């Protein structure tokens, strides 16, 4: 079985390309049984799910997905210029989609379990955030352009920590279920998330020391370590990078923005260069 992974297509930014045709070709050329999209395919859950449906009509490869942050952003119907706040509903739409949700349809094949689910950021990848006082945290969060998307009505600055905590709870439940099965300890596990589980997957320069806070959570990697996860596929940062730490291989499969591509005018080549294939 051959499973391809790719994230951060950002089709609504990378507008001058025919993604349906190129993806169908890439699935064919790579002989994929399944392709998993790791979030930030399009802005808004409806647009993303409709794209996956149209792609599924064009290819024999099974199309699965996990949500990124951009699938949870949406334009309010009443006021097209402001962002709506029903991210929870968008998350449910993505996770509960029977046809495409990897969360609903984990892959069990041979020795392998491939799972996927929601992920978010809780600032824990930032070196000093935990040590800041309340005022410093408030100032830090106000500087962040993402902050406005997910404030609740009480302007609760802890909303992102809560969303991350829920995603960690769901991930731990999946991992525990696998390990508690008969012969569960023998399974190899691959976990797909949109956000980063390790600061090392991001840029190390001090210039980026603030933005790393919004890239994910170090607690994903802690779960990987305690449950012996073999492979983590992530995206979000738009930095393709592979590294090994404490027995887990981490692979970032972001396609990212067109101006950073290696093959700027050839989407198919760029896709083939980006898609990570797990052959099991
Ligand atoms: Fe992205
Ligand atoms: Fe993202």
Which terms would index this structure?
single chain, 280 residues, alpha/beta, Purple Acid Phosphatase, chain A, domain 2, binds fe (ii) ion
Short structural summary:
By secondary structure, the chain is α/β, with parallel strands linked by helices. It has helices spanning 19-29, 45-58, 87-96, 134-142, 159-180, 218-226, 267-274, and strands spanning 2-6, 34-37, 62-65, 107-109, 112-116, 188-192, 231-234, 242-245, 248-252, 276-279.
List low-confidence stretches: none
| Structural class category | alpha/beta
How many β strands by DSSP?
A: 10
What is the alpha-carbon Rg in Å? 18 Å
Oligomer: single chain
CATH superfamily: Metallo-dependent phosphatases
The amount of helix comes to 25-40%
Annotation field: number of helices:
7
Report how far apart the termini are. 5 Å
Question: How would a crystallographer describe the biggest sheet?
Answer: 6 strands, mixed
Stated plainly, the CATH topology is called Purple Acid Phosphatase, chain A, domain 2
Strand order of the largest sheet: 4-5-6-7-9-8
Query: What is the CATH class designation?
Result: Alpha Beta
Rounded mean pLDDT is 90
CATH architecture classification: 4-Layer Sandwich
The fraction of residues in strands falls at 15-25%
Order of helices and strands: EHEHEHEEHHEHEEEHE
Domain Calcineurin-like phosphoesterase: 1-239
Protein name: Metallophosphoesterase
InterPro entries: Calcineurin-like_PHP, Metallo-depent_PP-like, Pantetheine_PDE
Pfam families: Metallophos
